[in-house]
Amino acid sequence: MNVPLYLLTVAHLICAAAGAEHVSLERQLLEEGISSGRRTCRLYCRVGIGFHLQIHPDGRVNGSHEPNQLSVLELFAVSQGVICIKGVYSNRFLAMNKRGRLYATQLGLSAVRRGDRRASSSRPHRPVMGALAGEWFTDDCKFRERFQENSYNTYASLIHRNHRTGRDWFVALNKRGKAKMGSSPRVKSQHVSTHFLPRVDLHDKSERGFTITERSKERRKTPPPLPPKPPLAKAVLPRIPTSRTQVKYWPKYRFG
């Protein structure tokens, strides 16, 4: 029995088992989302240098150029064309108030389990059946999802809009990554600040580049330098004697 080969095989099996157990949390969330009907993704806005929508634990909503844990979101289907957006790590729902300001709900699933009646008495919360059974949120958390022709999506508040003109209020980020007011007249569905692209691939992959060099050129020997050429002798032409003739110039005078 080859003892070194046996030990090498056992070590390889142990490393493979450890690598299989080390599954990232984002991969687990993605698999659970696919099985339960939830979409786990990041919402990428192409405004400015490009930002990922992120929800902070303190209720702030903004954008981050580099993807991180706060930008991992879950999209739930409430009804046909209506969804809600929840931060996975912040455990808060994205919402828009009656002034068009984006915020994250303060009452989540943990608060309901604790029996926080004071927080729930200020604003009526309605349970959502189906994928959101047991989780509570307000009508401010409902957004209408529309697919644009450029493969981007827009998210408009379901209940809040300009009642005089009927214009929808959209989720938008400015060129610095801050949340814009949905009630602003500049926030329209045609503007890039309202366009979001759901990115399902949650793993941060850096761009990897490589260069290909031809070894045949490296192995090819350079020819020896040529000897310097001798300077060419200048041809000396014989001088031809030239005869110079003097020309007298008589000035002309005009009289009268």
Question: Can you walk me through this structure?
Answer:
There is one protein chain. This protein has 256 residues and is an alpha+beta fold. The protein is 19% helix and 23% strand. Strands 1, 2, 3, 4, 5, 10, 11, 12 and 13 form a 9-stranded antiparallel beta sheet that branches. A two-stranded antiparallel sheet has the order 6-7. Strand 4 (73-79) and strand 5 (82-87) form a beta hairpin. The model is unreliable at 18-23, 108-135 and 205-210 (pLDDT under 50).
Fill in the keyword field for this structure:
Trefoil (Acidic Fibroblast Growth Factor, subunit A), nine-stranded antiparallel beta sheet, alpha+beta, two-stranded antiparallel ribbon, elongated, 256 residues
Largest sheet: 9 strands, antiparallel
Mean pLDDT: 75
The first-level CATH class name of one domain: Mainly Beta
Using the coordinates shown, work out and report the CATH topology of one domain: Trefoil (Acidic Fibroblast Growth Factor, subunit A)
Question: Could you give the order of the helices and strands?
Answer: HHEEEEEEEHHEEEEEEH
What's the number of helices? 5
Portion of residues in beta strands equals 15-25%
Structural class: alpha+beta
Outline type: elongated
Q: State the end-to-end CA separation.
A: 139 Å
Q: Low-confidence parts lasting 5 or more residues at pLDDT below 50? A: 18-23, 108-135, 205-210
Radius of gyration: 38 Å
Named at the architecture level, the CATH assignment of one domain is Trefoil
Helix content: 10-25%
Total number of beta strands: 13
Keywords: Signal
Pfam families: FGF
Protein name: Fibroblast growth factor
GO molecular function, one term: growth factor activity
